């Protein structure tokens, strides 16, 4: 892939189903594990972006949302510049304004459309999709809707190199910084107006491994953001399996080849990440 080559672009039709212009585009997206998605007309991105900017203000009431464990609430992470408001789906109604909860449900629809297309291409029989994905493909599982910005007072990378652990990540970023690793080198993923960036995660890679078409989980990072640049805002949706659930690898005949608890998969990945860094 040359530095100036664009990632493939997909859209969501009225079904809603994920479609690419050509099968070559889809091949590249599946092999790399990343592509652009044209923002569907029904997605109210503007309201969500406004909300993301509102919570930057020191007096925003959303800063008082309590922390739930290590992953939810208004949190600042170590070893990178991210500060974020992160909540899982079952807390959206309680803490997010109605239009943001609604926005999250629309991202659920996109996430489900993406994972269902991956399953369709994989040849795994449809009645097994829900079981393979710990329920995500049928509207269950875990989803996070996070509003992120970057604290330029931290002299760190925006986000260190990693792969995502879940199924599908949907990203809306307002300024450059995202990079993907290709053949040992990090390349920019430019912000493309009117488009989201979607990448696949390790859990989706795992469950498609013994099928006709597996998907890759790509290594990515965010460059260090400087105080001289505009604040980088991001909206990130993670489609994940439940932490206490299981994932199954089926082949195209519907035979279960292997399975793992989500906890075991994630702790194996955690080990790899430590090695990677
Ligand atoms: Fe990520």
3D architecture notes:
With 277 residues, this protein is an alpha+beta fold. The protein has one domain: B-lactam Antibiotic, Isopenicillin N Synthase, Chain (Jelly Rolls). The chain has seven helices and 15 strands. β1 and β2 form a beta hairpin. The chain is globular. The model has no long low-confidence stretch (mean pLDDT 93). Bound molecules: fe (ii) ion. The site of fe (ii) ion has 4 residues, from loops.
Please describe the topology of this protein.
Elements: E1 9-12, E2 18-20, H1 23-32, E3 34-38, H2 45-54, E4 73-76, E5 82-88, H3 89-95, H4 98-122, H5 129-132, E6 142-150, E7 159-162, E8 168-173, E9 178-182, E10 185-188, E11 195-200, H6 202-207, E12 220-222, E13 233-240, E14 246-250, E15 256-261, H7 262-276
This protein binds fe (ii) ion (FE2).
Task: Write a brief caption for the model.
This protein is α+β, with helices and mostly antiparallel strands and 277 residues long. It is built from seven helices and 15 strands. The protein has one domain: Jelly Rolls.
Rg, please?
A: 18 Å
Distance linking N and C termini: 25 Å
**Bound compounds, please?**
fe (ii) ion
Number of continuous helical runs: 7
For the biggest β-sheet, the strand order reads 2-1-3-11-8-13-6-5-4
* Mean pLDDT figure: 93
What descriptors fit this protein?
29% strand; Jelly Rolls; 7 helices; binds fe (ii) ion; 28% helix; alpha+beta; 4-stranded antiparallel sheet; globular; 9-stranded mixed sheet; 277 residues
